[in-house]
Amino acid sequence: MLSKRVIPCLDVRNGRLTKGIRFAGNEDIGDPVESARRYYEEGADEIVFYDITASAEARGIFLDVVERVAQEIFIPFSVGGGIASVADMRAVLRAGAEKVSVNSAAVGNPGLISQGAEAFGSQAIVVGMDVLAVPVSPQIPSGYEIVTHGGRRRTGLDALEWARRCQDLGAGELCVNSIDADGTRDGYELALTRAVADAVSLPVIASGGAGSPQHMLEAVSQGGASAALIASIVHYGQYTIRQCKEHMAAHGAKVRLVW
After folding, report:
1. Of the listed 88, 130, 158, 182, which one is catalytic?
2. 203 membership: H or E segment, kind and range
């Protein structure tokens, strides 16, 4: 059995670490490079870096920050935000990332997923899914809709249909973020995570809503996730990576414990 992963997420705006609730009210909370190094030293399995306004501002990602983070950590490092072409992917990978995460651009141009998988391998392509709970309808039978551009644009795409299509196009992993739960610390949207995990055979990362190690345990046990993405609970010092992993291990989850 593969170990379940704990993945701190660094949302970056203008080169600074930031955090908000439901994609709004973001505040500056520090240096992403320092945070990445601390989480690596605490035992994080991977680090995710999102340039959260790159797509909305129609610009490229801050490669200098990517390079600085890559110099400080020696675990897999995924980067997303503003990646709209194979050339963008190549630039991020050359800057030191092992994976690229595509979201808004992939919805607008699904071929980007297959192009990236062909160029760099499926293992390097993560598709980020920002998902909003909506009324069930013929267009969105799952009751979960894909939204893009940092939650600013509705797409009319059913989340489960999009997840299956991403798999068919060659994605290596899906990161499923609930906008309704994002930043609330009330727990992951387990029904959403479970639905996506059951719809595809790819690893699924649960994202949005972690408020305790117990929530992380629930994501990998009840939600069927391969990994739990966390932000606020470690950014604000409520828990350390070690505390999160020790709780998960104590309750039966297989995690990597290396101190």
Report:
1. 130
2. none
Give the CATH architecture of domain 5-250: Alpha-Beta Barrel (3.20)
pLDDT at 139 over 80: yes
CA distance 221 to 28: 33
Average pLDDT of the chain? 90
Contact indicator for 9, 229 with CB cutoff of 8 Å: yes
Q: What is the pLDDT of residues 9-67, one digit of tens each?
A: 988 876 677 665 544 455 666 788 889 999 999 999 999 988 866 555 555 567 888 89
In this prediction the pTM is: 0.91
Each as own residue / partner, the long-range contacts of residues 70-73 (CB below 8 Å, 24 or more positions apart, any chain) are 70/95, 70/96, 70/97, 71/96, 72/33, 72/36, 72/37, 72/40, 73/36, 73/37, 73/40, 73/47
Q: Which pair of tokens denotes residue 125?
A: 């392509």
Q: Are residues 2 and 215 in contact, defined by beta-carbon separation less than 8 angstroms?
A: no
The closest alpha carbon to 208, from 191, 199, 198, belongs to: 191
Q: Do residues 193 and 207 make contact, with C-beta atoms less than 8 angstroms apart?
A: no
Per the annotation, the verdict on 11 as an active-site residue is yes
- For residue 257, which amino acid is it? L
The H or E element containing residue 32 is helix 32-42
Is the predicted pLDDT of residue 82 greater than 90, yes or no? no
* Catalytic site residue from 11, 45, 51, 182: 11
Residues with Cβ within 8 Å of 75's Cβ and at least 6 positions away in sequence, in order, are 40, 44, 45, 46, 47
